[in-house]
Amino acid sequence: MILRPQWRSWLVRGGYALSLFGGVLTLQLAGALLGLDALVSGFVIPGLLLALVVAVYTAFLFAQARGRDFWQSPLLPVHMIVHSLMAGAAMFILLDGAGLVSIGGQLTTLFVAAIAANLIVLAIELYITHPTADAKAVVKMILHGQYRQEFWTVVLACNALPALALYLDPTNAITQVLAAVLVLWGIYRLEKIWIEAPQRIALA
Amino acid sequence: MPSIIEKLAESIGLIPKLHHGEPLLDRLQPGSALTNYPPPEQWDNWTEYEAKAWPRREQKTYDIVPTTCFNCESACGLLAYVDKANGQVRKFEGNPYHPGSRGRNCAKGPATINQINDPDRILYPLKRDGKRGDGKWTRVSWDEALDDIAGRIRKALQEKRHNEIAYHVGRPGHEGYMDRVLQSWGIDGHNSHTNICSSGARFGYAIWHGHDRPSPDHAHARVILLISAHLESGHYFNPHAQRIIEGKMNGAKLVVMDPRLSNTASLADHWLPTYPGSEAAVLLAMAQVIIDAGLYNREYLENWVNWQQWLETEFPGEAVVFENFIEKMRAAYADYTPEFAEKESGVKAAVIREVAIEIGKAGTRFATHNWRSAGSGNLGGWAVARCLHFLNVLTGSVGTEGGTSPNDWNKFHPTFFDKPPAQKFWNELHFPKEYPLAFFEMSFLLPHFLKDKRGRMDTYFTRVFNPVWTYPDGFMWMEALSDEEAVGCHIALTPTWSETAYFADYVLPMGLASERHDLNSYETHSGTWIAFRQPVLREVARRQGKDPQFTYEVNPGEVWEEDEFWIQLSWRIDPDGSLGIKKHFESPYRPGECVTVDEYYQYIFEHTKGLPETAAKEGLSALEYMRKYGAYVVEESEYKKNEYAIDAKALEGAVTDPKTGVITKNGKAIGVEVQGKACVGFPTPSRKQEFFSPTMIDWKWPEYKIPTYLKSHIHPDEIDYEKGEFPLLPTFRLPVLIHSRSGNAKWLYEIANRNPIWMHPSDAARLGVDTGSLVRVYTEIGHFVDKVWVTEGMKPGVLACSHHLGRWRRPQDAPGNRWATATVNIQADGKGGYSMKTMRGIEPFKSTDKDSARIFWSDGGVHQNITFPVHPDPISGMHCWHQKVRLEKAHDTDQYGDIFVDTNKSMEVYRKWLAMARPAPGPDNLRRPLWMKRALRPVDEAFYF
Hints:
The complex is a heterodimer of chains A (204) and B (945). Chain A is an all-alpha fold and 204 residues long.
């Protein structure tokens, strides 16, 4: 895949993005360890751009699976970015809790905002953007079918509840850590649903 | 073009070099146009890349030779790619010059390569060693086998035991070849598989117009009505499927009657999930709607239906005018309302009305098809085809563009270099007096007749025929074939091991699609074509300037072909010519010498309309043309052949009946006068469509003198659901398998390898079973144990289990079809009871084919047919396949695949159904109506007792 690349495939593009991003992070890590600040700061911009690609390429990869109607949603890249922001914020909160970094109050605000954005994106994806029968069948599976329980648990326990708790008490360290863990778990479960459910539709 | 990264990675050796700078094949160069198929001018030297070598570009050069598929009955065109490097067939693809299949094939065609390379195939003639059925075999030469068998037959003929020689065909498809052979021997020895297949439909069509098959012109239809799943697996399904879809793309409506949501039903505009056996009621209700709505074709009915005969016979003294016919018909079908049909079938009356109106509006563009399914499942199943054809008659769509023609109009009849006279014998083992109207041989009653000592068979050939497995009552077949008194010598002509070959004296390996000669012609559409099946390695040898004497010299091992086998056998039966057989096998080109297979086909092709002229345009002889292209269109599209004028010469000395218009010559009807024109008409006594059948009255079935609905033996009145009873449909085909011939095709068994019981969720809930539950299914003579598959694709209250699966072999048998066969233990209790238990399922095995060690499936299905008794329809002679069964949850000791049968009960059921028959003689002491078709027709005198 890497050495005989087929450049139209997002599998290849994603593979290269992941490799390059991994390389940048390695260099920055090496810079930090060796005290070479220029190496760290010099790669911030390329690192940010690559991080963006790494965060969203899966959406384009899924969209290349033409038979899976649910993955054709134009909001899928937004969905991925929002999830990456949530996951990134959650990780920093956890690192902060472990005393490894120090975060400001703005990150908590960003975290809550990202969760709120996620709920809006989910609502649009599930209630507005699916014109085909197969996509509707997936939505039905998620909202009312076999994924119903898991989906609503994620929405309530892993999104709404942490966001509300942080909104009411943004500085409580225990709340922050619990919210971060719940959000990360929620992202894992939700993406599992997003990957699995559309593939339950028989193509023939 | 490779990317820079790829080039770099190749240059530093990280990945293999695939870009050596060698030129691409011309047709793959940028800017060149791809072709759908290799152009025929390159068929003797075609180069392409080897798929399995990818990504390396390994070029291979082939001889491409056309032949035809030997799996189902369609005989679709194949191109065999013979590798010039090793002389072996590499693969099969479609032949674009085949008019039926047009280059497209189903999975079974390309899978021929599996069958050729099957590590279990029989490569040499074998003779049994030890008791019949013991599984011990000795290799013999073709000469030994031929001399021994020829000696037996010669002795039987000399002793006037003509009726003790029989040939029983499973897969036919060689246009008249065997009729010629058997008639040269002077025997009435033809038996076939027809009555477990199509005799119901055949009778339904024949009683209308003499022709016994339909030839629907789907491509030009406005409404297509299919009884069952013809789009995916029915008769001629690949050629038909193409044309049904063409019809649909041109706007035709597709209507499908099937209790099962088949792939065909899923593509229908109207799916009518009829209760099995109720189809005729629905069709008659549609007829009523069409008549009431005035949508019938007055011109066609008035000219081409024997309505006057009906009025004169049944309503004497009343006016013989067309309006009266319509009124009487309306009265006759008054009870067949859509509401009545809904009660019988479960299909809503409103839907029946809607479809009927669409059919009426389609008029002459109404294509219909019924072959097996309902016609072969039910007592009185023949009425389905009869009532279906009634709709064609009402709409005037018989033989029209977009309508339904008789099969004979689209089927080729070859001219032979020699035609032996018809035999003078009538063999009652095949055509017993109880079934004078049967279409045709009562083949599935053969073991019962033998047990009843109605006769014996000295020499019995089975040709690609596996009744032990495919037929009902398989244990009765095993008993009969094991009885050396009843069957003197059983010779199995077969490409592969089968449950029947295990009980043979000789197993003679015959070639597959690319290893044999045959002439094929089928009514796949409105044209007429021939196709040439040929041994492709022999053709390659010929291209190389070699001239093998016999096909087994070039085939794998000593695999031969029937064509040459019969010529050589016949020659040896009558070496001095004293029996009058030898002369029928003398070459038309070399007097006194034995005809070759090439000469046999040369003569036919030289006498095929238009073929020599077409061939000459390419500088080829007719035979060379067929060798090159493998097929030829004899007639593009012809309709309304009943209106063809009788030629003036034939009319000389003919007499026209002033009342009926029937034209006779030398006592035989040759046509009918319609609107002042002498037309050939249809091959019935009235030379018209017989809405009213005097034949049914003459042969003791007056209650069925006009198209009627009969209640099936599995009618709801007969089923007690409270007791766990159900109707079981055991007949449906799977698109990738074919009877028991596909067991040696690994690709096909990889796709389909189990046959669970289809059951609707409501029935499953009632019985407390779920998908995978083991159930015991009781038939009238025993039971089998199978798993359940719960699906909404099945009509509630009806069960189904697919055909083809549940193949087996015993521990003592030669390993055969191991992709498909379980190893079973058969135990007889000595009192007529037999049990079968699966010892081992399908297992991986080591062989020359590495895939055989990769078999991942262990379940090969359950052999249901062996638990079915015989159900001979008293009129058509069809074995009525559907079963009334009783379901129980499996017992504690039951295992998947278990079978038990009591053959005493088999004989009881046989006698019960036999008693329903109304035996010959008919009028004038006849065995069978003279006007009706009969397989291997004897002289007219033999029709009389």
